Amino acid sequence: MFARYSPVFATTAALALLATAGFAVAQAGKGGGRTDDSRSAGDSSGSFEVGGVEVDVRGKDAEAARLGGWRLAQRKAWGMLAQRLAGRGSTLSDSALDAMVTGIIVEQEQIGPTRYVARLGVLFDRNKAAGILGVAGKVMRSPPMLLIPLQISGGAHRVFEGDSAFAEGWKRYRTGNSAIDYVRPGGTGPDRLLMNAGQAGRRGRGWWRAIIEQYGATDVLIPTVELRRAYPGGPVVGVFTANHGPDNRRLAQFVLRVNDDQALPALIDAGIARIDGAYQDALRAGVLKTDQLLLTEPPRPEVPVEDEGGEQPIETVDTPSVASGAVYTIQFDTPSVAAVTSGELALRGVPGVTSATTTSLALGGVSLMRVTFDGGQASLRSALEARGWQVQEGAGVLRIRRGGASQPAPAQPAQPSQPIPAEAGNSSDG
To answer: How do residues 47-60 score in pLDDT, each as one tens digit?
Structure first.
């Protein structure tokens, strides 16, 4: 590095080392340092990222050297991005680059009184850069993938429950260069309930479909890390696995290690970068395919075949009320699921009834049943009353109840006189 170190350099270098964990610093404009709060460090899905840009710049003071280093990094990074995307070099003016750069990432820097040495990363606006390089329609991109990061540590499985270093690492990760369109939940509100460690082990496509549709995704990715510690504060081993789909199918697995617990964020960041690379390789190889059961809901064969044939006599016979095999609607009480089953069984046991199927279910209320009966409506009413049902009759509709008359009787002289014996008894006791 430098041949000699001044006291000013030692102080500023020590402060700069605090930012070497990937802290994103806003771009510096011509008029001095400016803060760009419109894009956070973890949300760069709309940016191309170029990292590892080495700069060594001198200036009249430390600030001028630093700003000059950032501007030089923009130029170098643009040439590297053009070579990577278009296969050719490209140069732009500083004003054009200022309008396109969305952020500067300080990977490592050392600041002296008149000298600035650093390794930087540069973020470019995806739409602007792709338009200038002519690759707007050539960038591969996956369908939206719901991300559920699962961490296993000390026997505990967690996604967003409590503190998860793995979930925090995915929030920091910049996806601008990735071909995977990650849908990263914030981990608040219903996220902890819908996407927990137990959900990763479920296979039911219906529940998975409901979750991914709620988050606007078409598939699910379940990256996993198992953290193994030799002793508190000591070495940490991370077993990383890239899983895909509701079946949690493994695409890749690898092991990383750091010497102490303080380096856990670096371990997580390195593991996430390799997992993202595994997902991109699977996408290019055609392995990252969406389960078709997640895209379309399977048909529900609820209507029996005989019901389709049972409706034909209604359309062809002029007087369906007296035709053989006529269809009627039965209204019956369904306070519970058991009442639905028992009601259907009871109707099927009535002589002349060939089929009985519930067509409209209202638990705790009145449901509708479609009944095919060999006879007229009056005959069906008589058959139901013979079985103990209380029946009210309408045009093609019968209302049935168990227990108690459906309508009060017109004349019941004993009803108003019921209290009289009680009063008489009381008076005689007195």
So the answer is: 788 888 999 999 99
